[in-house]
Amino acid sequence: MSILVFIESAEGAIKKSSLEAVSFAAAMANGSPVVAVAMGSIDSSALAQAGAAGASKVLHIADARLDQGIIQAYATAIAAAMAKEGAKTLVLAKSSLGDPVAARVAIKTNASLVSNVAELPNTNGGFKVKRSIYTGKAFAEVELTAETKILAIKKNAVTLKEDGAPASVEAFSVDFGANDFGMNITSTDKTTGEILLPEAEIVVSGGRGMKGPENWGMLEDLAKALGAATGCSKPVSDIGWRPHHEHVGQTGVKVSPNLYIAVGISGAIQHLAGVNSSKVIVVINKDADAPFFKAADYGIVGDAFEVVPKLTEAIKAAK
Amino acid sequence: MKILVCISHVPDTTSKISFTDNHTKFDSNGVQFIIGPYDDYALARAIEIKEATGGTVTVLNVGEADTEPTIRKALAIGADDAIRVNAFPSDSYFVAQQIASIAKEEKYDMILMGRESIDFNGGMVHGMVGEMLGIPSVSPVMKLEVEGGKAKMAREIEGGKEYLEVSLPLVAGCQEPIAEWKIPNMRGIMSARTKPLKVVEPASNDTRTKLSQYQMPAAKGAVKMVSADNVAELVSLLKNEAKVL
Ligand SMILES: Cc1cc2nc3c(=O)[nH]c(=O)nc-3n(C[C@H](O)[C@H](O)[C@H](O)COP(=O)(O)OP(=O)(O)OC[C@H]3O[C@@H](n4cnc5c(N)ncnc54)[C@H](O)[C@@H]3O)c2cc1C
Ligand SMILES: Nc1ncnc2c1ncn2[C@@H]1O[C@H](COP(=O)(O)O)[C@@H](O)[C@H]1O
To answer: Above 80 in pLDDT, residue A193?
Structure first.
């Protein structure tokens, strides 16, 4: 029986987190077909890329009304795609759109839904997954008891597969209900051409130790040298030094990059909760007693204003 | 405007998390419980809207009797009355059913929740309730204005936000900066004692997931310190030892 994967795109390409979701489905599929479903205007050639991650086919609902993330319509479309494919499992990447959509699909399809899935499921006797809880401070092993199952996965839950053959792309149309387009998106205010924080393999994050927004240039330079996204602590976005969507932590974005570099951040427990599933953490702080060092893999005690530019140079030199 | 605010009862954000009974029960020893931080934003915004336009704010919690101090705190902050569904919140589906069942009777104009609970972090209850009631659900909402039967909202998306309009009734999962957290004052605390808190039994006991076991993350190794005068060494460690560059 096929596994369906909901894939999102950004700037004309499938999002990396969605390709991870396809890889996750492929790793658990055991030979059954993995079918992706994509919405809105996007080139078939871009969609065929889902094949590299392990999908054999992409259902494309090219309705231009889906260019925007209309939550109810997306849920209807995904439930219709599951019915068409006879799929009893849906996998998707956790995201600001994936979460609210998955919740509605779970009710439409009478499914068990588990979010924040951190590893491939264990199917020896039942169907269990390991999910992160208490904002990354612990895990729970949870059994999905319904026949239909939906998994919203965390970043880095599985290694990205990149060697599959291109997928076939099939047009699919959906009969939407009268209420599906009740949400009217009037405008969007979004940075373009930048690496999105939840998608990034490397994150460079700054705290109140950076002293002011005018000093972010050096963090942006470091981020550019590394191909990283930039983040910040809560007070930094509260004061308005940085935009809200860069705020990392328990009440902000939860990141799990391969490398998290924290500059001038003290390491309060609420900040750590948003970064503790990063593979490697580097802390740069002028206070040797900053609590963040206890959660770090590598640390430098020093003044950010001296260390960061030197680090940027050293990274450029090592390339 | 008749508003329902759903609040979770969760460990304070500074809590150390641990488990008992062979990793099957949360160890609440020494843990301080609070209104979920995102739910607190929803409550604050609900009270602001009520103060501006009139109406009522009801808070709802699905939980056992030990959640009542948390519910009383919401009343002290300014909710008018409260409902406790007397049951352990086993999973998001279970919680959503209880909320939807009460909302079907009461016909709220808006059901505000947090973007996610900070214990199970599903971010799922609002969407489930929206679908059960057949009304729109929007999350994560960072701005919410009501005007002539319509809500104007800003929703956070990766890398920015989108602005949207939805007709009432609706469900929203809220987050900052939708409002400032409100702190109860003395008068609020006094009046909370006598505000109505209705206890009802669950409408259904269905769940869709079952916990088998809790687990703690693997312990972190010791930090390796590098001299500020030798950042090249850090780069080489990241490249050759950690293999992340
Ligand atoms: C309910 C709740 C939820 C919260 N959620 C979050 C959250 O999601 N995310 C979050 O980040 N916080 C959150 N917080 C806030 C958190 O408790 C801390 O207040 C916050 O993380 C501190 O930010 P900071 O480290 O940038 O600032 P500070 O604590 O002020 O630390 C600044 C650091 O910079 C260092 N420094 C100063 N100058 C330099 C220099 N020249 N070079 C190098 N280092 C320097 C200092 O030694 C210090 O360690 C929350 C709090 C509450 C109560
Ligand atoms: N036990 C509960 N009682 C009432 N509301 C809840 C409960 N659990 C979660 N909620 C609400 O649902 C939101 C999303 O929760 P979750 O889907 O668990 O992340 C929370 O922010 C609360 O507003």
So the answer is: no
Which residues have CB under 8 Å from A310's CB, separation 6+? Answer: B231
- β-pair type (A57-61, B81-86): unpaired
Q: β-pairing, B209-215 with A138-144? A: antiparallel
Ligand 1 pocket test: which of A285, A293, A307, A310 has the largest number of ligand atoms within 8 Å of its C-beta?
A285
Q: How far is the CA of A224 from the centre of ligand 1 (A)?
A: 24
The pLDDT tens digits for B143-185 are: 999 998 999 999 999 888 999 999 999 999 999 899 999 999 9
State the total domains in chain B: 1
> Is the CB of B113 within 6 Å of ligand 2?
yes
Residue A105 banded pLDDT, cuts 50, 70, 90: very high
User: Residue type for B14, please?
Assistant: T
Render pLDDT for B11-22 as a digit per residue (tens, 0 to 9): 998 888 999 999
Residue B108 placed within a domain:
yes
Four-point Cα dihedral B199, B205, B207, B212, nearest 10: 90
Of A250, A141, A107, A239, nearest to B114 by C-alpha is A250
Evaluate if residue A145 carries a pLDDT over 80: yes
Query: From CA B167, how far away is CA B149, in angstroms rounded?
Result: 6
Contact B178, B144 (CB under 8 A): yes
Q: Domain span at residue B191?
A: 2-217
pLDDT (0 to 100) of residue A190: 87
Q: Which residues of B touch A292 (CB under 8 A)?
A: none
SS3 B164: strand
The span from the CA of A93 to the CA of A74, in Å, is 14
Q: Compute the average pLDDT of residues A55-63.
A: 97
ipTM for this model = 0.93
Half-sphere exposure of B96 (CA within 13 A, CB side): 26
Residue nearest to atom 16 of ligand 1 (CA): A268
Residue B219's pLDDT band, with cuts at 50, 70 and 90, is: confident
Residue nearest to atom 53 of ligand 1 (CA): B13
Domains with residue ranges and CATH for chain A: 3-171 (3.40.50.620), 197-318 (3.40.50.1220)
A-chain residues within 8 Å CB-CB of B217?
A: 136-139, 276-277
